[in-house]
Design goal:
The chain has two domains: 130 residues, MutM-like, N-terminal (N-terminal domain of MutM-like DNA repair proteins, Alpha-Beta Barrel); 127 residues, Helicase, Ruva Protein, domain 3 (Orthogonal Bundle), CATH 1.10.8.50. It is built from eight helices and eleven strands. The strands form three sheets. The chain has a five-stranded mixed sheet. A four-stranded antiparallel sheet has the order 1-7-8-6, covered by helices on one side. Strand 10 and strand 11 form a beta hairpin. The chain is elongated.
Length: 286
């Protein structure tokens, strides 16, 4: 699933244009929408969505968590790529893609294709973006997300770190890849309970989260399957998808386990568990 660095990279490319994803979408007017799979539309109804979006001009493009937010002349178009989504600007005569389930046709020519092999992605039209993203947690790269704030948030919860960091209402934008990378940088076990961290460990986690995300952004995200194209962060993973490979810090083989039904990678030497605390983790998180 595209995470914060991958989504931010898509936003930048669609905003700037002339790159991997075609011309800029800024200033384009949507003439009509083709909904080949109406299930993409989360709100309002598919018919109302097409009516609301058609005729609108894209005046800006931003990101909140894993959502792309298209600022329209009236209201907002939001897109969540989910597991297999991708957005590309194509010419009108480009070969048809059977996985392009939602297509925005521009009045000046060209189209924005939302391809989604697994059909998990969602699109929204709303009056105010907060209607969709209002419940998200803080943006981890913004100035307001300080180590002190993170410490207060962690103390208020009593959960294992890995599932908590994946919770989008806790912190927006982290997924499986960057959570594992951040925990490794912080030298914290995925099952460590959030309210047991000391001040130095909180700062290490805060630093690890930001460093992992910033590294991902520098490399335009990770390309690990057919879904996301262009990034090379997968060549710089410290632990994710590196089971049995040596830890970059100590050489110990990376171990894979399952936490919260998610494949989880960590170094058993650098990220030693607090055994007594790990036993207290709720079974529902394992």
């Amino acid at each position: 699933m595209p995470e914060l660095p991958e989504v931010e990279t898509v936003v930048r490319q669609l905003r700037q244009g002339d790159g991997e994803r075609g011309a800029s979408v800024i200033g384009q007017t949507i003439a009509r929408v083709t909904l080949r799979w109406p299930g993409h539309v989360a709100r309002p109804s598919p018919r109302e969505f097409a009516r609301r979006v058609s005729g609108q001009t894209i005046t800006g493009l931003s990101r909140r968590g894993k959502y792309l937010i298209f600022h329209l002349t009236h209201g907002f178009l939001l897109i969540h790529l989910k597991m297999s989504g991708d957005l590309v600007v194509m010419g009108d005569h480009a070969p048809r893609d059977k996985h392009a389930h939602t297509v925005f046709h521009f009045r000046a020519g060209g189209q924005l294709r939302f391809t989604d092999t697994r059909k998990f992605g969602r699109v929204y039209w709303v009056e105010h973006a907060q209607e969709v993203v209002g419940a998200l947690g803080p943006e981890p790269l913004e100035p307001g997300f300080t180590a002190r704030r993170l410490g207060e948030m962690l103390k208020a919860r009593h959960r294992a770190l890995k599932p908590l960091l994946l919770d989008q209402t806790f912190i927006a934008g982290l997924g499986n890849i960057y959570t594992d990378e951040a925990l490794n940088r912080a030298r914290l076990h995925p099952l460590r309970r959030s309210d047991t961290l000391g001040p130095q460990e909180v700062r290490a986690l805060w630093r690890g989260i930001r460093q992992a995300l910033q590294s991902g952004l520098r490399h335009n995200g990770a390309s690990i399957d057919w879904v996301y194209r262009g990034g090379d962060f997968q060549n710089h993973f410290r632990v994710y998808d590196r089971a049995d490979h040596p830890c970059v810090n100590c050489g110990t083989p990376i171990r894979r386990t399952v936490v919260g039904q998610r494949g989880t990678y960590y170094c058993p030497q650098c990220q030693k568990p607090a055994t007594s605390l790990a036993k207290k983790v709720k079974e529902s998180e394992l």
